[in-house]
Amino acid sequence: MRLTLHRAHLALPVALVLILGCLLPLLLLIAFSVFTVDMDAFEMVPDFSLANWAQMLTNPVFAFLIGKAVLSGLITALIAAVLGYPLALSIANLPIAWKGIAQILLLTPLYTGEIVRIYAWRVVLGSEGLINAVLEGLGLVDEPVKLLLFSPFTTHLVLLYNTLPFMVLPIWISAELIDRRLIEAARDLGARPFEAFTRVVFPLTIPGLGVGLLAVFALSAGDMLTPSMLGGTSGATPMAMIDNLFGTAFDWPLASVLALSLLITLFATASSIGFLLLRFKGARAVLQGGLK
Amino acid sequence: MSDQSVSRNPATSPLLLSARGLVKSYGRNRAVDGVDLDIPERAFTTFLGPSGCGKTTILRMIGGFETPDAGSLILDGRSLVGVPPERRPVNTVFQNYALFPHLTVFENVAFSLTLRRGAQDPAPRVKRALEAVHMGEFGARYPHQLSGGQQQRVAVARAIIAEPHLLLLDEPLSALDRKMRGHLQIELKDLQRRLGIAFVYVTHDQEEAFALSDVVVVMNKGKIAQKADPVTLYARPADSFVADFIGSATLVEGEVLACTPGNATIATPLGTITAPAIEGLQTGGRAALVLRPEHLQLDGCSGMILTAQVEHVVFKGDRYMIEAGIAGVTLRLMSNRPPEPGTLISIGFDPVASFITRIAT
Which stretches of A151-201 are DSSP H helices? Predict the structure, then answer.
């Protein structure tokens, strides 16, 4: 399916939203990033300066925070893919009545707010929490396992829990769209069930897997609440720092520099993921020709 | 693969596939209800019937995509029960082709050759298979860049490259327009002769079945209604279902008054008629007289003369098709001149050319 020129007007509303809601703030950020703060008057003045960019590049704290966010996003996306892919395929193979139930179960966590979920996890994972109570009750541990709450483990467990539906849904849909006769054709031509999977099913679900990876990466790399409320001392994020710089510190130029740097890094990482997936044999043909 | 010493005549070729008592049900519905079948080597066999008659289910059982509830299926002297599709010496051309959309034409055709480790370079064989279906130039294309007819050819190339003992074709031409269908029928028949392998073909199109097949198996409600060559099927239908499904026919029911070997006399609304008949009719039972348009002649003056009233006249290009009513029966015949609707015409009819058959249950 190609977007021909005479249909281009259909994209106009989205284009407007993108320009007004995304490009404009971005231009403002770029402008702010080369301004300076007059600390005496406590206001931002449009005096050109690259000092903030220099600080960004020289102070390792910023690079560390951004790197941590990217790594966090990548780890969550990879684990979500490993857990979500088989789950998505099994849902696609369920009888039709069970699919509806699976979809409700899959999406239920999303209907509760993020804050509610975070406090629920605290109740489950805390020192006085459910899991520790069970472990102690069974005599498996003498004192509460501290690692369960306020650690990188907690952060990633909850990020995974929050983002798994965004991995499962697109893979499920792409698996659902595969004509069953393609699998029969593969078997007919001599492929064992596992070969039919690797040669036919997997390549045809790469678009879904790609969407899932990108969605989970973006959601978890850009998350602030989960790490800061459940990650304890490990919970520092570039987002929280940007929040501080804009708010408490009133250093908008530095905040803009950090925000832009984070944006560029996440964008570059996401593009690399997309590019790598398109290099997979045939993924491009599927996107161009559809599944028929 | 195939033994060159065996006979060229399909009718006397050794047996390739043999089925006994095949049954397959979906819930309460018996899709295939006790089918016995023998398919010789090198034969072109077609399963013909309306949708839901069980023809595709039989094909899928031979291919290994459905497991029979009961019965045996023997290919090359070995039972197919429990053998998965990938281990059967059978390949399938699927309805709508089922080409792999993420693979090029070359890769689609090479698929079965590249599955095994240490396989030789598939290129020469792929090239030969693609040339056999006149698609040699298209190896680098993806399926979505091909027309329906081209996709169909690729599907055939992909299915014959592994040299199956039996090729199954599931309504392979049904998605194509009429002209392309006629063209590909000739190509398929030609290919089957050149390859010398048995084809089992499924279609609901009687013309297609006649154009292609050595043997046509007409299916009705999960059972075989008749298995014969096209000429026999047309002239000596085993029951009224076959007579009605094959070609154009008017069926006139009546009581059997007398049976002699090869002939029967029945009392019909058109009068008492003696005509060639199927074996096994019972005196006093009911039977159906099969009247084909070519048995009836407008203004004919030999044999029986029937006077009927013209109901419809339809221009068919080369001739007119006339529907005319007599004693509650609508006769269909062809003519070079169009009579006026409502007028009475006399129709000549030679009973010896017609046929009396059983009434289908």
Answer: 152-176, 180-188, 193-196
Residue A204 sits at the chain B interface (C-beta within 8 Å): yes
Q: Is B342 helix (H, G, I), strand (E, B) or coil?
A: coil
- Contact call for A185 and B100, based on CB within 8 A: yes
**CA B274 remoteness from chain centre:** 30
Structural domain containing residue B264: 241-357
Cβ separation B102–A189 shorter than 8 A: no
Q: Does residue B280 share a domain with residue B177? A: no
The span from the CA of A199 to the CA of A218, in Å, is 29
Highest average pLDDT, of A140-144, A146-150, B310-314, comes from: B310-314
Q: Which residue from A minimizes the CA distance to B91?
A: A188
- Judge if B188 and B248 occupy the same domain: no
Count structural domains, chain B: 2
Q: For residue A192, give the chain B residue with the closest CA.
A: B86
**Domain spans in chain A, listed from the N-terminal domain onward:** 61-289
Contacts of B317 (CB under 8 A, 6+ apart): none
Q: pLDDT tens digit string along B137-186?
A: 999 999 999 999 999 999 999 999 988 999 999 999 988 888 888 888 99
Please state the ipTM of this predicted complex. 0.84
Query: What CATH superfamily classification does A61-289 receive?
Result: MetI-like (1.10.3720.10)
Sign of CA dihedral A247, A248, A250, A255: negative
Could you tell me the two tokens for B116? 């095994």
CA A200 to each of CA A1, A237, B157, B244: distance values in angstroms, whole numbers, following the listed order: 22, 40, 19, 44
Q: Minimal CA–CA distance to A52: which of A251, A202, A243, A250?
A: A251
Distance in Å, alpha carbon of B169 to nearest chain A alpha carbon: 12
Residue B249 and residue B226 in one domain = no
Task: Flag if A184 and B84 touch (Cβ within 8 Å).
Answer: no
CB contact under 8 A, A181 and B145: no
Q: Which residues of chain B does A180 touch, with a Cβ-Cβ cutoff of 8 Å?
A: none
- What's the CA gap between B254 and A47, in Å, rounded? 108
